[in-house]
Amino acid sequence: AARGGGAAAAPPQAGNRADVPAPGSYPHSRQSKPRQESEEEEVEKRNKKPRTRTEPRTKNRKKSGSSIVTVEDDEAEGTQEKAAAPKHKEIEIQFAQEAAQEAAVATAETLEEFKPSEAVLGFLAGKYLYPLAHKSSKFPRARWFCRLCEYHCDNLAKCREHYLDTRHSRLSRTKEVETTLYHLPRPNKHHLDCLNSLLATVEKEQGLSTSDLNIRQAVAQSVHSLLQEHIQGCTVRLYGSSLSGFGLKSANVNLDLQITADQKPHLALLKALEVLHDSPEYLEVADEFTAKIPTIKFMTTTGLACELSLNNHQAYQTSSLLKDYWSLDPRVRTVGVAFRYWASVV
Length: 346
What we know:
Blueprint: H1 14-17, H2 39-47, E1 61-64, E2 67-70, H3 71-108, H4 118-125, E3 129-131, E4 144-146, E5 151-153, H5 156-163, H6 166-182, H7 189-206, H8 210-228, E6 235-239, H9 241-244, E7 253-258, H10 265-278, E8 282-288, E9 295-300, E10 305-310, H11 313-328, H12 330-345
Parallel strand pairs: 7-10
Antiparallel strand pairs: 1-2, 3-4, 4-5, 6-7, 8-9, 9-10
Helix pairs in contact: 7-12, 11-12
């Protein structure tokens, strides 16, 4: 029994289940049916007579593995797809008619309850809506229950409003995706080898190489040497993808400015902004002090975009942890770079 008094409805007959696809069904490969040979083909095979342009074009069978795929199968599939829409419209019309009949019975206030047809029961089952076997104490007027949303409906009209609702549609699509992923076949060795090759290629072409990381480390050292002359006791260090190695070649260079406890943060940032602005080694220096994390953005003469923040210790620890993961298993960085690149293209 479902929560709130909901119970499973009697399974629809086999003849009606063919009209409505099962929710979240996985599209299995179709099985072709052997076609009976016509008399003309038998005569043609017996005489081994070449076909001319004036003769009717016969459709050859192409055998692949254990299944036989013919041209008729493709045409039959297209015909079935075209016939699916009229069937759906027919069941919608029938559903609307039975909903009107149910409303008329309810208006007449008769003791007899309206019973929908098996076709409508199968249609609603495809929408995860089932009749209640027992009345709910919390919703005494409810006759239907949605097992997907855990929602009670009083009549067929309310059922239609519910399965057309945005939330139900979203949950239905999510359920179909989960079911499809669950039924996906397990990858074989060939699939895994192709995937490994693809990930290695992405890491090599899009990820930061050892030379890229060294260049970014040199930028951090250069900024550290420059600011240390004007802000006593400060240090500049890398964090983010430039430290962990999980970044792309287009990633920014994240720099963290560490100051002593006796210095005021806002004065340190203002001084750093002034020093970077006056330095000929850095271009397009601009402040973003109104952001959630105040930063100073600038460019190097080689075209690297840099961001300098203040006392970003937590981000530094996270980056160091990822770097340790990379040192333990290089595959961690391969997957991390692949996900970063995937997120950038979608």
